[in-house]
Amino acid sequence: MNMMHLDVPLTLRFADLNCDGERARIDAWVRAQAGATPFHLPAWSVAVARACGHISHTLIAERSDNSLAGLLPMTEISSPLFGRALVSNGFAVDGGILTTEPNAIRQLGEAAWALAQELRCPTLELRGGPAEGTEWLRDEGNYLGFVRDLAANDDTELLAVPRKQRAEVRKSLASDLEVTVGRDAAAARAHYAVYAQSVRNLGTPVFPAQLFREVLSEFGEDADILTVKANGTPHASVLTLYFNGTAYPYWGGGTSDARSLRANDRMYFALMSHARARGCTRFDFGRSKVGTGPAAYKKNWGFAGTPLSYAKRAAAGQAPREINPLDPRYALKIAAWKKLPLWVANAVGPHIAKGLG
Known about the structure:
Layout: E1 10-14, H1 20-31, H2 42-52, E2 55-63, E3 68-79, E4 83-88, E5 98-99, H3 102-118, E6 123-127, E7 137-139, E8 143-149, H4 154-160, H5 163-174, E9 178-182, H6 185-202, H7 209-219, E10 223-230, E11 233-243, E12 246-254, H8 258-261, H9 263-277, E13 282-289, H10 293-300, E14 305-307, E15 310-314, H11 331-338, H12 342-353
Parallel strand pairs: 4-6, 12-13
Antiparallel strand pairs: 1-2, 2-3, 3-4, 3-5, 6-15, 7-15, 8-13, 8-14, 9-10, 10-11, 11-12
Helix pairs in contact: 2-7, 5-9
Protein name: FemAB family PEP-CTERM system-associated protein
InterPro entries: Acyl_CoA_acyltransferase, BioF2-like_GNAT_dom, PEP-CTERM_FemAB-rel, PG_Glycine_Bridge_Synth
Domain BioF2-like acetyltransferase: 166-299
């Protein structure tokens, strides 16, 4: 006999992340949800708001017994170049509606849109999670997520990598490269130097250094930096989040010499080993645009791409905000940015990147 689903009465309100008790309660609930990501955690929202000067809004749904039934973390983005938007969640690739109650999906979405209108944000973005209603413009074919289980040990992990990429990893293991893991100021400086050069070479502005420091501070032992050095000089570095048994290498990059040194290959293989030692069983290689070099690189490592579902809602008569770097409108700007001296890119980039969200 099929059981009839009964809608559970829900109350929606905005959480106070300045209250330690409320924050701890939300943190525990998020960690217990199967579809949660580190971008749903209060730690992420607080770090982004503090580092970039944005305002965080965390919408929660509660049952009549005050137990949590849903969550929607949002960041209010304001940029003179890219306009205003309410994003779930800011500077993340996920963090949309998270709920255990089907009837909460529509309620959370409508409440978020009401907030967007109140804040005069013409665009509301949900990066992952469900969205109900014809008002949403859906993007379900442009981005891929790359996640798979970690192998039992290094030898098995190496065999899980397809032959061509495995050969590159073997060469990196035979090279005279040093791998370090840390969370201190020195590790953060080395990571930022590498990451800033990497994104400049790709033609995009670098985020403020404070964003990385705040994420490390808020996540504590659930975040660290792995760096690969050659002759004492950092050439590849990645800041990784650890959440519910999954490693999320989120901000990673390499110098101009990283490819010839195979520093990136060494970095990701070393990170898989490090994540396993931490007790992780899954590795989330992040998202990439369909048909791009990063997507191909991740497939070379044996990761199958899974389509990601995003949704946007825009004010009547307006097009939603679009900040995709592959948009042809940005081609000339990206080409020019690649030619900037690194010190110029590092000085100007953070002011622009704060508005990307």
